[in-house]
Amino acid sequence: MSYERHRRLRGHSGLRKMVREHALSVQDLIYPIFVVEGAEQPTKEVPSMPGVYHYSLKYLVEELKEVQRLGIPSVILFGVPTEKDPHGHQAYAENGIVQQAIKVAKETAPELVIMADTCLCQYTDHGHCGVVENGKVLNDPSLNQLVKTAVSQAKAGADVIAPSNMMDGFVEAIRSGLDEAGYEDIPILSYAVKYASSFYGPFRDAAHSTPQFGDRRTYQMDPANREEALREARADIEQGADMLMVKPAMAYMDIMREIKDEFQYPVAAYNVSGEYAMVKAAAQNGWIDEREVVLELLTGFKRAGADMILTYHAKDVAKWLGDDK
Ligand SMILES: [Zn+2]
Fold first, then answer.
1. How far is the CA of 124 from the centre of ligand 1 (A)?
2. Is residue 207's pLDDT more than 90?
3. What is the pLDDT of residues 117-143, one digit of tens each?
4. CB-hemisphere CA count at 13 Å for 154?
5. Beta bridge partners of 137
6. What residues form DSSP beta bridges with 323?
7. 6 CA to middle of ligand 1, Å?
8. Residue 151's closest CA among 204, 92, 199, 95?
9. Under a CB-based contact definition with an 8 Å cutoff, are residues 245 and 269 in contact?
């Protein structure tokens, strides 16, 4: 016989497990949570994201306890303020929604790694990630706002700062801002490679951050670009990023692999809202097996080089992995 018998290693379920190259673990998960200010209802489901809720501060406590109990190591917090303005002042208000949420999280669930998303789009009335003048998103003036936001989040107790706004120089600006304020030990998870993607639609429902004019293509990346992703990641490392994110995940697994191979830094995959919504919709229609599809997808991200996965499926995955033990 001249051909190789690959099936020899597939015949026994125990042997299949022994030769398995990648395994998804609850330790890989980061759970995104939306916290709303002035909520009338304690929790409200996001219409395009079944199973994802807006939490008022009070109900955030229960949610965090559950996340901790499930063994998920980390959450990333997104604030949804009642007050928005052109400069996004609420992003760095001392008693802003996300600053309050961070404090609650540190008190409630001290074992969790609390990440803060650092951007302005939930806080600006125009919905862009930076300061706008004459219909243009300005780079350098936006950096000042971001630095203030990051420092206020670190001051509130955030364990990791995760800047997502794609202005040039944002990692360097935030790193020096944190250092000057005495937070040199707080790591930065940079949204280094963030594409201008159509998969973000449901998130914008959830975070009330749809741009009121134009789109984000002048600062987020063109989905067609690969070399540019490497340049973005390299620049962020040079500027002081400790971990690199690729966002979205499903259509960009080649980029995760390249970033991992090229830089050997911890890589995070953001399994975004549109990806979540597609799986949920198909599952609700009975067209796919939700559990099997989600586990396959997330294992794929690991195989593609992701060390951690931000996913709205995190709680379900933690339960499923727990059932398998
Ligand atoms: Zn933004």
1. 9
2. no
3. 999 999 999 999 999 999 899 999 999
4. 24
5. 132
6. none
7. 47
8. 92
9. yes
Tokens of 146: 């971001």
Q: Which residue has the tokens 């830094």?
A: 265
Q: Which residues contact 112 (CB under 8 A, 6 or more apart)?
A: 64, 67, 68, 72, 73, 74, 75, 105
Alpha-carbon distance of 291 to 279, in angstroms, equals: 10
Interatomic CA distance for residues 26 and 29, integer angstroms:
6
Q: Token match 């030769």: residue?
A: 19
Give me the active site residues, please. 194, 247
Helix (H, G, I), strand (E, B) or coil at 194: strand
* CA atoms within a 13 Å half-sphere pointing along the CA-CB vector of 19: 10
From the CA of 211, how far away is ligand 1's center (Å)?
9
Residue 91 Cα, ligand 1 centroid: separation in angstroms? 11
Average pLDDT, the chain: 95
Q: What is the DSSP annotation of 234-269?
A: HHHHHHT-SEEEEESSGGGHHHHHHHHHHH---EEE
